Amino acid sequence: MSSINKVVLAYSGGLDTSVIVKWLQEEYQCEVVTFTADIGQGEEVEPARAKAEALGVKEIYIDDLREEYARDFVFPMFRANAIYEGEYLLGTSIARPLIAKRLIEIANETGAEAISHGATGKGNDQVRFELGAYALKPGITVIAPWREWDLNSRDKLMEYCETHNIPVEMKRGKKSPFSMDANLLHISYEGGNLEDPWSEAEDDMWRWTVSPEQAPDAPTYMTITYKKGDIVAIDDITMSPATVIEHLNAVAGANGIGRLDIVENRYVGMKSRGCYETPAGTVMMKAHRAIESLTLDREVAHLKDELMPRYAKLIYNGYWWAPERVMLQTAIDQSQDVVNGEVRIKLYKGNVSVVGRQSNDSLFDANIATFDDDGGAYNQSDAEGFIKLNALRLRIAANAGRKI
Predict the structure, then answer these.
(1) Which one of 3, 108, 240, 399 is at 20 to 30 Å from 75 when CA atoms are compared?
(2) Would you say 89 and 276 are in contact if contact means Cβ atoms under 8 Å apart?
(3) What's the gap between Cα 137 and its chain centre?
(4) Distance, CA of 338 to CA of 359 (rounded, Å)
(5) Looking at the structure, do residues 46 and 193 belong to the same domain, yes or no?
């Protein structure tokens, strides 16, 4: 412990990380640098400064990372159509490599030998933070208090605060029974009655979306413009990546879109039930697949779909900075050169429907696809030989008496 003179802590200003500041000062006898990131969680981050100062912190970083998060992490992930276990749009997972990156940058700027975080020893986030940190700075020391201390309950944390004169902000009103984590892409809910997979989530839990039953009776139409696989405008209004997500969250959420209730397999081995709101991501996934359906070669599109589960698992498990993810990203990004054009979507009571798509890079040929006379563009008799050649191995096996 004596070799650690300075540590950079991912600091929210809440109970856990406020205790961690004092605990690091006491246990490691070191200077603590706090880092608070604004990644679109919807809460003021500046109050964390006063809380850190009250704990004796001299170097305080509060960074607005919303555009970097959207541009360099969320948008590249959506070029891959990444979805974990068929449902989860990876809203928490994709935020962690950015936080790890900034922790290491601040450690380098301040000369800190270690970084620290408030993730528990049961979750995925500890893995994501630390894999990212080690990939970017192999010699960094990581301090994970939840794996070291015995303050494993809220009561013990409160006792520690009282003993060490740590101010605790007591919020008035009804406290949410859920553990929530929000960023620009989504908000997650765990704990409370959600720990029973049979128990339905109460409607007043959701923060970003109205229930589909309460959504407007008239549909909302929207035109999304793509350039090289990324959204660059909505309804002909040019937007930055972060603004795109903010706008889609508002419009889709108002139409009851983006709720998800799943049981997922954590990397550490346990199953976990969680609920998520990802209004913008739900629209982005649908629209991106629509523009790709028009512009990508068949085998390129199918290969992307085959690679996607591996890519999604890499992000979920914390391997954003691993060479295999970078390799896959290079291939994915190359495929997006032709993914340009517009998608028209319809939002209605929890549903996203694609109702139109157009592109100058379209591979759709109406002269060939038509059910009417194509003027000889496609010789239907050619299909006979195609079918017989592809049936050859099946016929040989059947003639040899092979059973299916």
Answers:
(1) 108
(2) yes
(3) 23
(4) 9
(5) no
Same domain, 20 and 158: yes
How far does Cα 372 stand from its chain's mean position?
Answer: 45
> Is the same domain home to 343 and 383?
no
Do 253 and 378 fall within a single domain? Answer: no
What type of residue sits at position 110?
A: T
In this structure, the answer to whether residues 142 and 234 fall within a common structural domain is no
Neighbouring-strand partners of residue 238: 233
> How many domains does one find in the chain?
3
SS3 355: strand
Say which amino acid occupies 147: R
Q: Which residues are catalytic?
A: 16, 96, 125, 179
Handedness of CA 329, 101, 87, 248 (dihedral sign): negative
Which H or E run includes 160? Answer: helix 154-163
pLDDT at position 169 over 80: no
Report the DSSP beta bridge partners of residue 346: 221, 353
Phi/psi at 76 (5° precision):
-60, -35
Report strand pairing: 259-265 vs 271-277. antiparallel
Element (DSSP H or E) covering residue 361:
none
Whichever domain contains 11, its CATH number is 3.40.50.620
C-alpha dist (Å) from residue 58 to 14, 31, 165, 329, 345: 18, 8, 18, 39, 50
Q: At a CB cut-off of 8 Å and minimum separation 6, what does 127 contact?
A: 267, 268, 317, 318
pLDDT of 176-212, one tens digit each? 667 889 999 999 999 889 999 999 999 999 999 999 9
Main-chain phi, psi angles of 353, to 5 degrees = -120, 135
Q: What is the pTM of this model?
A: 0.94
Relative to beta strand 341-348, strand 351-358 is: antiparallel
Residue 239's Cβ-count burial label (10 Å; 0-12, 13-18, 19+) is middle
Q: Are residues 346 and 210 in the same domain?
A: yes
Q: Let me know whether 124 and 44 are in one domain.
A: yes
